[in-house]
Design a protein that fits this description.
Elements (H helix, E strand, L loop, with lengths): L3 H12 L1 E2 L15 E2 L13 H7 L13 H32 L3 H20 L6 H27 L2 H30 L1
Antiparallel strand pairs: 1-2
Length: 189
């Protein structure tokens, strides 16, 4: 019964669809939609590094992209950002499934896989928008806290750690909403 708390925080994340379509004037191919689970995510093909570099210049020392914000955000999204958002959503889907089944071992494994998805997302480049980057960093930090608490809570059957997991998962949901809302706003131009 105590694993139900873990499922509560993840249900909204796992069920949320992430629609991030830019304006019709975007010069890059765009995905139509991505959901937290399911078949391959429709999106434009990754741009070769030389092409992306020619479209979007990097602002020295900031990790943020200079130039057209729609082009920069589209390049970030299509070259891995959307893939990482989807992987994190899928990670929370697996966590919710394990928690819903009351399977502590599966929950610990799912939290480990979620942490791997978060680590991969953390290694990806910065979001080319300071506001979205702030939410992205918060999402990754709260996701790490959730995965860590979920793993330790499941392995020790510790309800207090699972409560921490639920609180952090709720923050991830808010962060995910903030990131996707900001990406949508930038892509709308």
């Amino acid at each position: 019964m105590f694993l139900c708390a873990a499922a509560t925080g993840t249900a909204a994340i796992a069920a949320a669809g992430l629609i991030m379509t830019p304006s019709a004037t975007s010069p890059l191919p765009t995905p139509q939609a991505v959901t937290a689970s399911g078949p391959t995510v429709p999106q434009g093909p990754p741009l070769p590094q030389a092409v992306a570099a020619s479209l979007v210049g990097s602002a020295a020392g900031t990790g943020l992209w200079a130039g057209d914000p729609v082009v920069a955000m589209t390049a970030w999204r299509d070259n891995g950002g959307l893939t990482h958002l989807t992987a994190i959503g899928d990670g929370f889907t697996r966590v919710a499934d394990a928690a819903g089944r009351q399977d502590a071992v599966a929950l610990a494994v799912a939290c480990g896989r979620l942490q791997a998805a978060i680590d991969a997302a953390r290694a990806y480049g910065a979001v080319p928008d300071a506001v979205a980057q702030t939410s992205w960093t918060a999402l990754l930090d709260h996701g790490t806290a959730a995965a860590t608490a979920g793993t330790s809570g499941a392995l020790a059957l510790d309800p207090s750690q699972l409560s921490v997991f639920t609180a952090q998962a709720n923050l991830v949901r808010d962060d995910l909403t903030a990131v996707t809302d900001r990406v949508r706003a930038v892509l709308a131009g």
